[in-house]
Amino acid sequence: MNNIRQSNTRIDWVSRSCRLLGAISDEFKTTQPFAGLTIGTGIHLEPKTVALLLTLRTGGARIVATGNLNSTQVETVSFLRQNDIDVFAETTMNNDVHDQFLARILDEKPDMLLDNGGDLFARYLDNPYPGLIGGTEETTSGRMRLEPLRDVLSMPILVINDSPIKQFAENKHAVGQSMFESYMRLTNRATNGKRVTVFGYGACGQGVAACFRAAYGAVSVVDTNPVTTLSAHFDGYGTPPRRDAIKSADVIITETGATNIVTEDDMPDLKDGVILMNGGHFPTEIDVAGLKASNLVKECVSYPEQCLESLHLTDGRTVHILGAGHMVNLSGPRPLGNSIESMDIGFALQARCLERVAQTKGRNKGTQDCVVPVPADIDARVAENYLKLHR
Fold first, then answer.
1. What confidence score (pLDDT) does residue 69 get?
2. What is the pTM (predicted TM-score) of this model?
3. Structural domains present in the chain
4. In this model, does residue 1 exceed pLDDT 80?
């Protein structure tokens, strides 16, 4: 990461703490795996992302970057622009504005895409151009979106979230920690004795359930998969029927990757004072618009500094919504997101996977490498390097 302006900011602290990316950057100075290539990125623009983008640039890439809904941090955009990275982004919850930024990335006709939620690859199919050789997808939500498109995409796309390392290091451990931190940061409310219902018991849901239980919450889990629900039962969580779990909850957390998990239809069952928060990638798990439009809502009171809204109902109950239903661990004042170490691992996987795709030089057309997990040898390499640095 040479020729970077020095600072004494959070970005500087984060960059120095990303030791895996630092080592990869030193290697990329010599190997130049992305020489002559443009990489278009659509991923949360926050301090840890700076370390990844500068590592890719050190490897010879030209970077054109945008962010995701509601998570773009102004200081990050400013820093990247000061360091000669093209950024088309601003903090927004407006889908139309976000779509314009995605279009700007694709107008640059990048050779590879680093996607988050399938936004860039899906839009590429609307107006394909020659020369796109493949890329990466960060999330399970994006994988679910792109899998049905494998036949038409027909290029190497490696799914970072399908790495076992990503699953336990970032999703299970870091998401749980950051969701708990965000609950405390935005509400300043205790969790002791609170009834917490977690929707979804994948790796993220497991981490969230564990962290809230460790903070003396009484945690229940709801999952549509009976095998997963049985796993939660054996882990010691309550697994009541969905409606019972909603009725009893002081806090409801969604971690499913699906849509309409909590909707207007649930309004009669929501407990007075319940707090709703989403940890999924897209702001569609909690139907905030539908809740606000309910005939039961008498008044909506906003607390902008806390990124919190309170719906006062006609029967005297109050329902609180954090982050407007967006990913709460990147919402509100001083959002931190997941831990530096977990993101250093995930972004190391990103760098190595993009390096692997670049090595194909567009030769690997077809579905065999399209929307597939991180290759096992990359997982092993990243794990070994992390252990060497942190043992």
1. 86
2. 0.91
3. 10-166+337-390 (3.40.50.1480), 171-330 (3.40.50.720)
4. no
- Band of the pLDDT at 196, cuts 50, 70, 90? very high
pLDDT for 381 beyond 90? yes
Q: What is the pLDDT of residues 290-327, one digit of tens each?
A: 999 999 999 999 999 999 999 999 999 999 999 999 99
Q: In the 3-class helix/strand/coil scheme, how is the chain assigned residue by residue?
A: CCCCCCCCCHHHHHHHHCHHHHHHHHHHHHHCCCCCCEEEEECCCCHHHHHHHHHHHHCCCEEEEECCCCCCCHHHHHHHHHCCCEECCCCCCCHHHHHHHHHHHHHCCCCEEEECCCHHHHHHHHCCCCCCCEEEECCHHHHHHHHHHHHHHCCCEEEHHHCHHHHHHHHHHHHHHHHHHHHHHHHCCCCCCCEEEEECCCHHHHHHHHHHHHCCCEEEEECCCHHHHHHHHHCCCECCCHHHHHHHCCEEEECCCCCCCECHHHHHHCCCCEEEEECCCCCCCECHHHHHHCCCEEEEEEEHHHCEEEEEECCCCEEEEEHHHCEHHHCCCCCCCCCHHHHHHHHHHHHHHHHHHHHHCCCCCCCCCEEEECCHHHHHHHHHHHHHHHC
